[in-house]
Structure formats: structure tokens, C-alpha cells
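Comment on the following before class.
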Amino acid sequence: MTTSLTPDQVLRAAPIIPTITIDNLDDAVPFARALVDGGLRVLEITLRTPVAMAAITKIAREVPDAIVGAGTVLTPEHYEAVRDSGAVFAISPGSSLELLRANAVDCPLIPGVATASELMQGLNAGFTHFKFFPAEASGGTTWLRAVQGPFAEARFCPTGGISADTAPNYLALPNVLTVGGSWMMPKDAVAARDWDRIRQLAAQATALHPAK
């Protein structure tokens, strides 16, 4: 298990961060291994299912090359549970003041923003790395270009509605370090436990380059 990474190290560790929803705990390790073997080491396990926290713990213990974090972290209570689970980072779709104040070095928080005001709130609280969510619905690459001037120190992981076709457009921006997405984990492949297909799609995602 990797520990004590900075948000910058987390977001630079892979070009794409898969946002993973795990319904069956038995799938957690083979799912993670397929993604890591395909080159996607940074895994965001969303807290959307009853087994999510246990899945984080299991992956952290059994897939040593993975950088395992939690997504959909909504409250300080979520955050504390995530820290105890073995996650080394936490990602939130938003940025409440209570959650920002809960940030800890051993499991850094990457808060979500969708407006300039939210971004200012995060920067004023000492954050420089953010999830831009929902990216496509909130202005996409146009929004990211617009905030680059007044908020030059901010770096982003845009997530939400991004595909293999549009990801390179985001990766080409100087204030984007990585992109979050789930296109490399199609529902039919997950349902069939076709880990080899997911590994191949992860490898394709790993090979994505910024648009020219």
C-alpha cells in the first residue's frame, strides 16, 4: 500500500483515474488488478455501494501497486471512515467548508468544484488541486481555459461525461493533470467479469495523449 502521497503526486500518477463502482466484494481485487495491469494505478472507489469501504481495504491490502482512494466523499464522517479503510486519498464531488476543514496529510482530500466561487473557497482554505465535476455539464474545456488566468495555481482532475474521444482535449490543457472516467469499465464487461477486456481498455486509456 502506498502512503503519504500529496494531491499532486496522486493526480500525476496516471493520465486517467477510473471512477469505480463495486457491487460485489469478490470482484474488488480482480477488478483492481485488471486496471492496474492496464496501466491505471490510481483507483477511485466510489462510496455508492454497501461494500465500497470493504473493497478499498481489500484492494489496499492485496493489490500493492494500486494507489487506492475513495470517491463520493460527502461528509467529514465519510472522510474519517475512508482514512480508516486504507485509502490514501479522498475525492469529493463538492467542497463544503466542513469537509475542507477535515483534510489530513495521511489521506489528502481533493475537493470538487464547478464554479469560480467554489474554487476561490478551496484556494482560500489552502487547496490547489481539485476535481472539476460535473465537467462536461459545467463548461468542460471552455471553463478550464477561462479559470486558468485568474487561478493560475489551480490544477484539476475533470470528471463527468468524459469519454476516450474527449479526454485528450482535457489532457492538452496546462491546468489539467489527469482525467476521471469510467468508459474503460463498460457495464457489460463488469457484469460478465471480463477482466481481460477491462485490462485492454485500461491499456488504451493509459496510452491516450493530449490533443494537438
Remarks:
- The radius of gyration is 16 Å.
- The first strand starts at residue 16 and ends at 20.
- The mean pLDDT is 96.
- The chain is about 40% helix and 15% strand.
